[in-house]
């Protein structure tokens, strides 16, 4: 984990983690989707240039950022990080990195939603590059082997991939990312036979056959049982053929992952511990430490660069 360490801010900003936690507690009261948003943001940040907060940089007229890449257009939660950063800057100016805020805020959102309250090492610094051309992430229709290639390229194992996809126990997906499963799976003109018939009928009624722009596209919970609770029910759902996304359902049917899925479905504590360990591992991917990078004063703008807030893009990823 490079020079990351537990309690990195104990001397320079001792209240850092408690300030971030207070922000998350407040946000969750008004928006229970906060946990899913931060999990996705953290994943999408770490899997591009490493966990360096490059996903937070706003695009400008002349310089697009990672936010403009297809998979990132529907990432949510930037205002949560902004809120935490403002409060931290008021107490400890230019001390706590935006990359660490993402990591700690995600941990807190998970634990406050019923998941594990794990310890995360800190000391990340913020990156100096944010390029949409660097964004190449596994998508909702990726095969198990295709997704695994992306995970192993980042030093993560098959078990950790199955574990981290368990983050789908919270959150939603737009119909456009699974509509083919409902009506014309792989060009057959028929629904995906691996989907539970009750769920299929429900989603067909919700989504319909006509594709819509993201801002009018309905959403479905990825965990149809305990949709806002961070638990192991996602794995029970996919064993019952109630996975909404193709990649989720394939976790239950693929011979390389089925055993891990079954183990997590039957043992919530095993999943919680595995998830905590996997998140710490993911949070250490290609981090900047020491004198590398910078500590941004505004998470949306590189230090010394005058930027404007990028306009929201109407189309997004899953």
TrEMBL record:
Q: What is its EC number?
A: 1.11.1.7
Q: Which domain of life is it from?
A: Eukaryota
Q: What is its main location?
A: secreted
Q: Where does heme b bind?
A: 168
Q: What's noted on cofactor binding?
A: Binds 1 heme b (iron(II)-protoporphyrin IX) group per subunit. Binds 2 calcium ions per subunit.
Q: Which Pfam families match?
A: peroxidase (PF00141)
Enumerate the spans annotated as Plant heme peroxidase family profile domain.
3-303
Q: Which residues bind Ca(2+) 1?
A: 45, 48, 50, 52, 54, 66
Q: Which GO BP terms apply?
A: hydrogen peroxide catabolic process; response to oxidative stress
Q: What exactly does this protein do?
A: Removal of H(2)O(2), oxidation of toxic reductants, biosynthesis and degradation of lignin, suberization, auxin catabolism, response to environmental stresses such as wounding, pathogen attack and oxidative stress. These functions might be dependent on each isozyme/isoform in each plant tissue.
Q: Report the protein name in the record.
A: Peroxidase
Organism annotation: Rhamnella rubrinervis
């Amino acid at each position: 984990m490079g020079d990351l360490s537990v309690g990195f801010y104990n001397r320079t900003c001792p209240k850092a983690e408690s300030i971030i936690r207070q922000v998350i507690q407040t946000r969750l009261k008004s928006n229970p989707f906060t946990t899913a948003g931060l999990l996705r943001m953290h994943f999408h940040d770490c899997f591009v240039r490493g966990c360096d907060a490059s996903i937070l940089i706003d695009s400008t007229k002349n310089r697009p950022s990672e936010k403009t890449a297809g998979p990132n257009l529907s990432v949510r939660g930037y205002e949560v990080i902004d809120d935490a950063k403002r409060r931290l800057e008021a107490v400890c100016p230019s001390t706590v990195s935006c990359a660490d805020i993402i990591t700690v805020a995600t941990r807190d959102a998970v634990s406050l939603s019923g998941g594990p309250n794990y310890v995360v090492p800190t000391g990340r610094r913020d990156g100096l590059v944010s390029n949409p051309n660097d964004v190449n992430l596994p998508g909702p229709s990726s095969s198990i082997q295709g997704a695994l290639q992306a995970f192993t390229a980042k030093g993560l194992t098959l078990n950790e991939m199955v574990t981290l996809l368990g983050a789908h126990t919270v959150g939603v997906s737009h119909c456009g990312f699974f509509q083919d499963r409902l009506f014309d799976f792989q060009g057959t003109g028929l629904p995906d036979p691996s989907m539970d018939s009750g769920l299929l009928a429900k989603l067909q009624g919700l989504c319909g056959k006509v594709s819509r722009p993201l801002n009018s596209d309905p959403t479905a919970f990825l965990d149809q049982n305990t949709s806002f609770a961070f638990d192991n029910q996602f794995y029970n759902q996919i064993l019952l053929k109630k996975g909404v996304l193709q990649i989720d359902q394939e976790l239950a049917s693929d011979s390389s992952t089925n055993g891990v899925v079954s183990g997590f479905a039957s043992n919530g504590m095993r999943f919680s511990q595995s998830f905590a360990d996997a998140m710490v591992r993911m949070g250490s991917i290609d981090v900047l430490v020491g004198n590398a990078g910078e500590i941004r004063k505004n998470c949306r703008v590189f230090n010394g660069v005058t930027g404007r807030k990028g306009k929201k893009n109407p189309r997004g990823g899953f």
